[in-house]
Amino acid sequence: MGEGMNLAPALCRNRIAPVAVTPCMIRCVTGLLVLGLTAAGAAGACGQQHPEPSGRHSDGHAQLHDVYKGWHPPNNSKTSCCNDADCRPTRAYVDHDGQWRAWNGLRWLVVPTERVLPTDYAGVGRSHLCEKHEFIYCFSPAPPKS
């Protein structure tokens, strides 16, 4: 055998036969593995545009405070939804009765219909909840996922 070549067993029709492994083969396989792992990591990073919101009181409020401070309950323009920490991104879904439910960091709250603002009112593609001690001031659902 030539210098720099190893014999490695390979499965061939249920028999183990020696196969010459060259440094070039090792570099090629290593390169493919690195390329595959890099592509998988990039795909995972691209798939996570936003971390999952916790829904906890004030978590994420600061980033959108300037948006929230102009929000009012749909039927009361004299009241604000925002009290400097009450609004934040959250998770939400429509239950089997057609009622919105929003996560406040502890439990799923039923959102009163009269507290629902237009879809994507914050303009960032996610649901938002303005709530304190389980009283919902305002809620804006995310746009439907396609």
Folded structure, characterized:
This protein has 2 domains: 6-47; 61-140, no CATH class. Helices cover 23% and strands 27% of the residues. The chain is built from 2 helices and 8 strands. Strands 3-7-8 form a 3-stranded antiparallel β-sheet. Strands 4-5-6 form a 3-stranded antiparallel β-sheet, with no helix packed on it. A hairpin with a 2-residue loop joins strand 7 and strand 8 (135-140).
In short:
The protein has 146 residues and is α+β, with helices and mostly antiparallel strands. It is 23% helix and 27% strand. It contains 2 helices and 8 strands.
Radius of gyration: 27 Å
Overall mean confidence score, pLDDT: 74
Main sheet, how many strands, which sense, barrel? 3 strands, antiparallel
C-alpha end-to-end distance: 59 Å
The helix/strand series, from N terminus to C terminus, equals EEHHEEEEEE
* Overall domain count: 2
Sequence stretches where pLDDT stays below 50 over 5 or more residues: 34-49
How are the strands of the largest sheet arranged?
A: 3-7-8
Topology:
Layout: E1 6-12, E2 15-21, H1 23-47, H2 61-68, E3 87-90, E4 92-94, E5 100-103, E6 108-110, E7 127-132, E8 135-140
Record keyword descriptors for this entry:
146 residues, alpha+beta, 2 domains, 3-stranded antiparallel sheet, elongated
